[in-house]
Amino acid sequence: MSEYTGRHRPPTRAERRAQQRRSRLPKSFGPAYALPTAAAATLVLTAAGATAAQSSPFTSAAAHAQAAFTPAGAETPSAAALLSDPDVVESARAESATTTDETDGLAQRRQAASTSLAQDQGRTQERQRVARDKARKQLAADRAEAKKRAARERAAQSTSGSTTTASGSGATASGDASSVGAQGWVKPLDNAVFTSPFGHRWGRLHAGQDYAAAVGTPLKAMSSGEVIGAGPMDGYGIYIDIKYWDGTVSRYGHLSSVSASVGQQVAPGDTVALSGNTGRSTGPHLHMEIHPGGGEPIDPAAWLAERGIS
After folding, report:
1. What stretch of H or E contains 89?
2. CB 89 within 8 A of CB 43
3. Can you give the CATH number for the domain in which 214 is found?
4. End-of-domain residue from the set 84, 112, 132
5. Which residues on adjacent β-strands are paired with residue 55?
6. Is 141 domain-assigned?
7. Phi/psi of residue 182, nearest 5 degrees
8. Which residues belong to any copy of the M23ase beta-sheet core domain (predicted)?
9. Which residue among 58, 93, 153, 260 sits deepest, i.e. has the most Cβ atoms within 10 Å of its Cβ?
10. For residues 11 and 20, what is the distance between their CA atoms, to the nearest angstrom?
11. Alpha-carbon gap, residue 217 to 193, rounded angstroms
């Protein structure tokens, strides 16, 4: 192609063909116009593709529509004429708009359905979570109640056992007291085994009598009186002193524990301590001393015999 562009130069064959191709399309189908559907896209076919346009569904529809308004015997317009018809173009535009609206409506309905489904799933999950929380709380409450019930049952059993033991001890003490009277006398321990008398031994005074007794053997008050001393003492280990109604004081030594407190009133046969092996002791036993009027110790043998204690 020549680069000369003067006014007297005739257009070349290639320029004429390009000009013919550009002039065949209607203005409404310029580069700035586009239809959203495949049917509308066939409207921008060139004259060389008119056959394909005529065979497309849209062209056939347009041809049928045009034939409906064409009198019998009249010539059917060509595809190029249909493409340049404003009514056909407007119909295509309306169809495209309708299709777009239907597509948008379908998308909106799908979005609404998805949103509703998500909301339903969220509500279902929330109900399930609440139910699980409620079940866990109920289980924890049941376990706590079971623990409390078990604790109450154990406490009741312990109280019942203590009451039974106390009742048994009271019955024994009452039996002893009723058999000898409030001012009667009983042995300090059952099944006593005498092991050592009152007297001097190894250069010192052994101020009482010893009775062999396993650690934990119950020791009893010999008559009615009051506890006037208890606790640890050098040589005696753990001791307890009881002042009886006649003023006599008895001392039990080498105990493992005491079960009566200072100032407590006791009756004949009441358990006041448990035997042991504390202080200067060579083995488990009861060391018992007798102090008439709270004075110096005496040989318990004669004193016990006067009161019928053997």
Report:
1. helix 86-180
2. yes
3. 2.70.70.10
4. 84
5. none
6. no
7. -60, -30
8. 205-300
9. 58
10. 12
11. 12
For residues 256 and 274, is the Cβ–Cβ distance under 8 A? Answer: yes
Residue by residue, DSSP assigns 13-54 as HHHHHHHHHHHHS-GGGSTT---SSHHHHGGG--GGGHHHHH
CA distances from 137 to 143, 147, 149 (A): 10, 15, 18
β-pairing verdict for 199-201 and 204-206: antiparallel
In a domain, 125, yes or no: no
Quickly list DSSP for 227-283.
EEEEEEETTTEEEEEEEETTS-EEEEEEEEEE-S-TT-EE-TT-EEEEEB--SS-SS
Give the range of the structural domain holding residue 47, as residue numbers without chain letter. Answer: 13-84
How many folded domains does the chain comprise? 2
Residue 298's beta-bridge partner residues?
290
Q: Is 113 helix (H, G, I), strand (E, B) or coil?
A: helix
Q: What is the mean pLDDT of each run of 10 residues along the chain (310 residues)?
A: 57 79 57 46 47 50 54 57 69 79 82 85 87 87 84 71 42 48 92 91 89 95 96 94 96 96 95 95 93 94 90
Burial pattern 178-203, b for ≥16 Cβ within 10 A else e, equals eebeeebbbbbbeebeeeeebeeeee
Record the pTM. Answer: 0.45
Closest CA to 189 of 64, 92, 103, 274: 274
Query: Has residue 265 been placed in a domain?
Result: yes
Domain-ending residue, one of 67, 84, 101: 84
